[in-house]
Amino acid sequence: MRAGAGAGAKSRAETGAASTTASGPASTTASGPASETETGAGTGVVRRNGRRLAAYPLALLLAAGSLVLAGPGAGAADAASVCQGRPTRTIGFATGSLRLYRTRSYACVLAVAKRAGAARPMSVSLQPRGGRAVVDAGRFTRQAGPVTVHALHRCVRATASLDGRSTATGWILC
After folding, report:
1. pTM higher than 0.85 for the full model?
2. For the chain, which has fewer Cβ within 10 Å, the N-terminal or C-terminal residue?
């Protein structure tokens, strides 16, 4: 060992600078315990001020999971439309409304109840001129549909029924 190398190492230790060992970063300095991070021996767990950093990702995962289950607008009464396109017509009737949307080449319709509640019979249909009607019928709590048909340069006819009350359009969007 050279005399100059030993003297340099001694002066670093005297000034309080952290030295490194073959296993990794130092755990102590001349002024006291290691800075804020320490590595556990062989565990791979990083500690910060005595706390495990593994708890932070777990808390983040739980928070993200609650957003997925509850949704960001869990308290909102009206959900965003599931139909693509711009709202073209809304026809209200006693128990709900018929909402019609249109893109350049497609038409979409859904029937929405005024108040969500127990499952009740609902149906919605959409028919392009010269084509067959597409129907969504069953027992739903909030809405029936969406029903989408190809309607490029075609008129469409829509009908909806909720709790025995119904409405229909003539040939529209021609």
Report:
1. no
2. N
